[in-house]
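User: Some background: our group keeps a shared notebook of sequences we're curious about, and every so often someone picks one and asks for a predicted structure to add to the entry. Today it's my turn. The entry only has the sequence so far, pasted here. Could you supply the structure so I can complete it?
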Amino acid sequence: MNTDKLERANILAKSLIPKADELLNMSPKSSSGRLADAILRLSQCDQKFETKFKQLLNETKQRFQKEFDEL
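Assistant: Of course. Here's the predicted structure to add to the notebook entry:
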């Protein structure tokens, strides 16, 4: 097996997939530091995640701003 592929597989299995699982399983009891770390790690290692996450945050902010302006 190609060493680059093996390295990527290790990163996926040991880091990125568990971080995604942590976010999927978040609850009010989840540590905010662990959740922030998961988001940061995913953003650093996955450009698509970072782009979509920022897009979601921008859309949410715009929705909140619109609601605020209507009040």
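Suggested note for the entry: DSSP finds three helices and no strands in the chain. The radius of gyration is 16 Å.
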